[in-house]
Amino acid sequence: MDSNGLRLFRAVAQSGSVAAAADSVHSVPSNISARIRKLEDELGAQLFVREPRGMRLTAAGEVLADYAERILALGAEAKAAVAEVVGGGGALRLASMESTAAVRLPPILAGFAAGHPRIGLSLTTGTSESVLQAVLERRADLGFAGGPVRHDRIVGEAVFTEELVLAVPHSVTSVEQANTRAMLVFRSGCAYRARTENWLRRRGEPPRTIMEFGTLDGLLGCIAAGMGVSLLPRIVVERPHLAGQISALTIADSRVETWVIRHRDCVPSRAMNAFMDYLRPPAQAA
User: Fold this and answer.
1) What is the DSSP track for 21-79?
2) Contact assessment for residue 208 and residue 182, using Cβ atoms and an 8 Å cutoff
3) How far is CA 198 from the centre of its chain?
4) Which domains does the chain have, with CATH numbers?
């Protein structure tokens, strides 16, 4: 049972068919089918149920899929750790909520990159739910998501505390006046959207028009244009370039944490440890 066989097994498990798996790993279906049969012979168990429209995992296949994910991730971590020792650098893949990436991370990433020029940084953005999924699937080493994050395969800690405010067009001066406007929210899976929905329920407000956005810039632009209002961190709303376009109205029970998370089974690399030491306050890092 070698790593390449496990990689092909994982591709079939994720795609649901040999043909789709072959496309994703740039192989041929006959090679993948042969490797799957070899795995089944080695383990003495059927790993897939062959169906007319694809393949699905058996109970034994589900067990192997879990181990395969961990084995392949550990192999990748070992390769990266050796590369760090040899080259003195490494790579760090980050995933973050858009608002955190837009306001909190730029000075942190700039300072870290200046102090660790041989560590390659990459950053993807999305909702808290997509950040969590990226960390669970080992597509990101560290993630910034709305907290607290409770998952048996995740460890994390609070790194920022945000004050949520009602972001309104500059002409709106009260929460009551804002209640006549549409509520602008991020797509499902966003921590701030969940807080918005809870806030509306607690206030007992009647249903209002909900407009969903995929980007922070798009949402802010529509608030400035008078299309609606939104719950956002104060640090996002009160940036200088938004002055005169968007105002922040204080609301009750407005504190929300941002957590940095990693996979529980992940062995922290030197790059990860260096970043966490940089991210934490000096007293906490010590």
Assistant:
1) HHHHHT--HHHHHHHHHHHHHHHTS--EEEETTEEEE-HHHHHHHHHHHHHHHHHHHHH
2) yes
3) 22
4) 3-83 (1.10.10.10), 88-161+259-285 (3.40.190.10), 162-255 (3.40.190.10)
pTM for this model (two decimals): 0.72
Output the six-digit token pair for 121. Answer: 């940084």
Question: Residues 271, 262: contact at Cβ < 8 Å?
Answer: no
Going by the DSSP 8-state scheme, the letter that residue 241 receives in this structure is: G
DSSP summary character for residue 180:
T
Per residue of the chain (286 residues), give pLDDT as tens. Answer: 788 889 999 999 999 999 999 998 888 999 999 999 999 999 999 999 988 888 999 999 999 998 898 888 888 777 777 766 655 567 899 999 999 999 999 999 999 999 999 888 999 999 999 999 999 988 999 999 998 999 999 999 999 999 999 999 999 998 888 888 899 999 888 888 888 888 888 877 665 788 999 899 999 999 999 999 999 999 999 999 999 999 999 988 889 999 999 999 888 888 899 999 999 866 454 4
Contacts of 207 (CB under 8 A, 6+ apart): none
48 has which bridge partners? Answer: 57
Distance CA 228, CA 104 (A): 25
Helix intervals (H) in the chain: 3-15, 18-25, 29-43, 59-87, 98-99, 105-115, 128-136, 175-178, 191-203, 216-224, 234-237, 270-279, 282-285
Query: Which amino acid, one-letter code, is at 29?
Result: P
